[in-house]
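Sequence design from tokenized structure. All designs in this work follow the same two-part layout: the structure record, then the generated sequence. An example of the structure record is given first.
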């Protein structure tokens, strides 16, 4: 399929896919068309056993400036708004739940829906000039693609409420200080560092990588005792894999393991 609002490419080993939001003339504002294409692409990634890790970026100048206001302005009723926000939430949840590590590489602004997209990723890397904000309050609405829920889970309720109530942006250094981003890099090296991290993840045993992500993501929605039982089940199932046997054997033989994803 030909995509218009996003571009994607795989690395030479086919293990890492980089998705680039591709509406530069609109600062990568997230449109209905972009949501639909991200939805289709996420399904393709989920079903591609070669792909082990994903990078989402907006390119060199901007991650995403938010939702496409020209489309939002045409939502004439709560029914229209429900259809729009349900679509956005569904796509963000698919990205969050895909059983592969997803890295957001953020250059420039990640506002509104762009910030929510970054929040749906597992790891956020930022350039030194990155800015993050959920400015919806300034036009009389709230985030609708997960911002009010993912942000406090990530940085704590007090800090999240300050960002949500003010709508004001924070810079990369503040985002790092409060735990919104994992690392900061110079703009010129951001993508190299994102690829390096993604390839490191891709070199890990695939089933253990999947189990790690699902244990964390699923467990966060459970009470502690249920989450611990789920973790134990994930742990136990890995003892049926060839990769675990290879990992243990390689450790004992003091050599580099050769994982096969089985």
């Amino acid at each position: 399929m030909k995509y218009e609002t996003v571009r994607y490419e795989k690395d030479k080993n086919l293990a890492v896919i980089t998705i680039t939001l591709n509406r530069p003339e609109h600062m990568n504002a997230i449109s209905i068309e972009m949501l639909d294409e991200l939805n289709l692409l996420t399904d393709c990634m989920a079903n591609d056993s070669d792909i082990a890790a994903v990078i989402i970026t907006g390119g060199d100048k901007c991650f995403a400036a938010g939702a496409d206001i020209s489309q939002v302005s045409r939502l004439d009723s709560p029914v229209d708004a429900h259809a729009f926000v349900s679509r956005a939430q569904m796509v963000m949840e698919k990205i969050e739940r895909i059983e592969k590590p997803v890295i957001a590489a953020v250059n420039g602004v990640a506002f509104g829906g762009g910030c929510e997209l970054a929040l749906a990723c597992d790891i956020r890397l930022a350039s030194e000039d990155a800015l993050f904000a959920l400015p919806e309050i300034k036009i009389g609405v709230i985030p609708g693609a997960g911002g009010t829920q993912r942000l406090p889970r990530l940085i704590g309720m007090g800090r999240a409420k300050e960002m949500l109530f003010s709508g004001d942006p924070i810079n990369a250094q503040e985002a790092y200080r409060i735990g919104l981003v994992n690392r900061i890099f110079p703009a010129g090296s951001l993508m190299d560092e994102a690829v390096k991290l993604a390839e490191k993840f891709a070199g890990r045993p695939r089933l253990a990588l999947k189990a790690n992500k699902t244990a964390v993501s699923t467990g966060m929605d459970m009470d502690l005792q249920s989450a611990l039982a789920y973790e134990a089940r994930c742990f136990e199932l890995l003892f049926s894999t060839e990769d675990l046997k290879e990992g243990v054997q390689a450790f004992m033989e003091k050599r580099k393991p050769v994982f096969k994803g089985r």
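The chain has eleven helices and nine strands. We note this feature because it recurs in several other targets discussed in the main text.
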